[in-house]
Amino acid sequence: MSAPTRPRYVNPTPSDDRSLPDPAVEGTLDAKRVAAILGICVRSVYVGIKDGRIPSIRYGRRHVRIPTARFLEEFGFVPKQGNTDPIES
Prior knowledge:
The chain is of the alpha+beta class. 28% of the residues lie in helices and 11% in strands. Helix 1 (31-38) packs across helix 2 (42-51).
């Protein structure tokens, strides 16, 4: 009898993680969730936070959260507030 084969690597991030969050339900996001939404690695999210390209809130020395509403607005997932021109939103 042959040894059982190991299953192939399966991405642990569920596909629904890429869905856009509702700021009223999720006030902040973690780096893993932002990485899934943008389709990049978590390390790239932390680099973007350090560079100031991804808005973030730091608490403590090592903890960081991304404000959902600002993140969605900055990356163009929702129209920017105050912009009523449908062509530019």
